[in-house]
C-alpha cells in the first residue's frame, strides 16, 4: 500500500516501484489523504479542481497497474506562500485532522488488504508540505495499529537530485533549486535504492496523467520534469529511494521486500 498526500505525489516519488511490484504480481493499493484541490493549476482551487485531480489519479493508477485507489477525503491544507501551513485552509484540512482517528481509518484499510508493506514519507515530509509531514505521522501510526511488517519512507536522495536540477536549470533558468537544498534525505541515510529504469515508460505515463499539474506555467515541477529529454529522464528518474528505520542505516537494499543480511 502506497500512502500519499495529494494526487501526483505518487508519480514523482513511488510510481516506478508501484509499476514494478504490480508487474511482479503484487496487489498494489494507492491511498491519498486529500484530492489536492488547492494545488497549482489553471483551474481555480476548489471542488472542480479536486474532482479533476482524482480523475487524473485514477488514470495514473491504471498506468501503474494499481488494483485499488482510496481517497481518505481530507481537505488539502495547501501551502503558505513562503512555505509552511496556510492560514486560509479548509475546516477539514488534513493537517488539522485528529491524527489518531486518521491513523485508525488507514489502519482499517491496511488490515482489510492484509498489507505487507506501507510507504509513507520521511519526517520532514520531503520538501516540507504540511500534508506530507502529516502523512509521515498518520502513516507511521497506522502501521503500528495494523502491525504492518514493513514501513518504507519514500524520499529522494538529495545528492543526485541537486546535481540533476542544476543541470535542468541550464535550460529552465527560473527553476528554483534552493528550495531543494534542505529537502528530502541525504544519501547516507537511505536504505533502499530501487532501480526502476525498466518502468520509465509507466512512470512517465503516471506523471503525464496529472495534466492539471503539468500544463500551464512552465515553472511547475511536473511540467519541468516532463520536458526533460528521455536520456536525462532515465538518469534522473531511474531510481526511487526509501528509508526503512528498522534496518541499519547505510544498508544498500535494492528491492522493497529485500531482507537485510544478518550480523
Ligand atoms: Zn503533495
UniProtKB/TrEMBL annotation:
It comes from Streptosporangium subroseum. GO terms for biological process: glycoside metabolic process. This is N-acetylglucosaminyl deacetylase, LmbE family. It comes from the Bacteria. The keyword DNA-binding does not apply. Keywords: Zinc. One of its GO terms (molecular function) is hydrolase activity, acting on carbon-nitrogen (but not peptide) bonds, in linear amides. Signal peptide: none annotated. PANTHER family: 1D-MYO-INOSITOL 2-ACETAMIDO-2-DEOXY-ALPHA-D-GLUCOPYRANOSIDE DEACETYLASE, N-ACETYLGLUCOSAMINYL-PHOSPHATIDYLINOSITOL DE-N-ACETYLASE-RELATED.
Amino acid at each position: 500500500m502506497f500512502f500519499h498526500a495529494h494526487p501526483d505525489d505518487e508519480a514523482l516519488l513511488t510510481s516506478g516501484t508501484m509499476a514494478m511490484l504490480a508487474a511482479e504480481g503484487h496487489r498494489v493499493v494507492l491511498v491519498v489523504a486529500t484530492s489536492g484541490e488547492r494545488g497549482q493549476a489553471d483551474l481555480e482551487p476548489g471542488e472542480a479542481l479536486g474532482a479533476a485531480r482524482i480523475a487524473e489519479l485514477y488514470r495514473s493508477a491504471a498506468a501503474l497497474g494499481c488494483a485499488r485507489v482510496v481517497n481518505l477525503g481530507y481537505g488539502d491544507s495547501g501551502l503558505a506562500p513562503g512555505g509552511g501551513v496556510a492560514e486560509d485552509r479548509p475546516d477539514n484540512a488534513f493537517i488539522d485532522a485528529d491524527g489518531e482517528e486518521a491513523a485508525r481509518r488507514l489502519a482499517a484499510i491496511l488490515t482489510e488488504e492484509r498489507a505487507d508493506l506501507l510507504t509513507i514519507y520521511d519526517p520532514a515530509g520531503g520538501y516540507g508540505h504540511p500534508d506530507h509531514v502529516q502523512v509521515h505521522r498518520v502513516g507511521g501510526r497506522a502501521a503500528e495499529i495494523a502491525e504492518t511488517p514493513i514501513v518504507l519512507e519514500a524520499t529522494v536522495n538529495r545528492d543526485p537530485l541537486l546535481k540533476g536540477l542544476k543541470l535542468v536549470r541550464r535550460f529552465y533558468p527560473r527553476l528554483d533549486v534552493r528550495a531543494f537544498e534542505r529537502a528530502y534525505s541525504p544519501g547516507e541515510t537511505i536504505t533502499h535504492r530501487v532501480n526502476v529504469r525498466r518502468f520509465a515508460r509507466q512512470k512517465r505515463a503516471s506523471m503525464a496523467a496529472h495534466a492539471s499539474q503539468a500544463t500551464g506555467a512552465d515553472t511547475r515541477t511536473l511540467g519541468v520534469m516532463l520536458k526533460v529529454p528521455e536520456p536525462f529522464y532515465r538518469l534522473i528518474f531511474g531510481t526511487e529511494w526509501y528509508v526503512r528505520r528498522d534496518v541499519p542505516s547505510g544498508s544498500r537494499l535494492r528491492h522493497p521486500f529485500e531482507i537485510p543480511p544478518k550480523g
